[in-house]
Design brief:
The chain is an alpha+beta fold and 203 residues long. Helix content is 28%, strand content 32%. A hairpin with a 2-residue loop joins β6 and β7. α1 packs antiparallel against α2. The termini are far apart.
Length: 203
């Protein structure tokens, strides 16, 4: 039944949701960045769809009322950390949250924050949570964590060190960035609303 639900989600959003396909031991490197065909804008949109699909699936499988009741304390704790969460890795924000205008009238609405960083940098959980998905998006790994009614997503990982169902603490390693040298970081609630990560991270 679980596999059928996941398969349906994949067909709806047209991406490969490979949840926890490998063991918790560090997975092998994915394709180098020059082989990844999707632009950063397309990958950002795909990541946003991945996060929303993962939230939808998790809510459907667990029951919304039960989720809210069981995790209300963690949600409150996470909310109180607004402006005080540790950064997922050292780096510089090269594209902030929100709309960005380009030539020819093209507008890209970034649903998270793009953080330039060193190749091989360790990506760490910003807060205590549960790994709800480890997903391949266009040749790179994305890890999604649940913090009560909030979710954080970490994409462009070349390797990962966690699997679905793992419990993590703030600062725990999730994997390493590949030669693309950028982390796509997103923060949303269980209704699929995205928030500006820089507002939540420590100044």
């Amino acid at each position: 039944m679980f596999k059928k639900i996941v398969a349906g989600v994949i067909l709806l959003v047209s991406f490969d949701l490979c949840v926890a396909a490998a063991p918790a031991a560090e997975r092998g490197a994915k394709k180098p960045s020059h082989l990844v065909k999707h632009s950063s804008r397309q990958k950002n949109h795909r990541l946003a769809r991945t996060v929303k699909a993962g939230i939808h699936h998790h809510k459907a499988a667990s029951g919304v009322a039960r989720l809210r009741s069981a995790h209300s304390g963690l949600s409150d704790d996470f909310r109180r950390q607004k402006g005080h969460l540790d950064w997922p890795l050292p780096g510089t924000v090269s594209m902030s949250f929100g709309p960005h205008k380009y030539i020819h009238g093209i507008v890209h609405n970034n649903q998270g924050a793009t953080i330039d960083c060193a190749e091989g940098a360790v990506v760490r959980a910003v807060y205590t949570g549960e790994v709800t998905a480890v997903t391949d998006i266009a040749g790179v790994w994305c890890v999604i964590l649940k913090h009560g009614s909030y979710y954080t997503a970490y994409s462009n990982l070349a390797t990962t060190t966690v699997a679905q169902g793992d419990q993590v603490q703030a600062g725990d390693s999730l994997g390493r960035i590949g030669d693309i040298a950028q982390l796509e970081f997103m923060l949303s609630d269980e209704d699929g609303k995205f928030y500006d990560p820089e507002v939540w991270l420590r100044k």
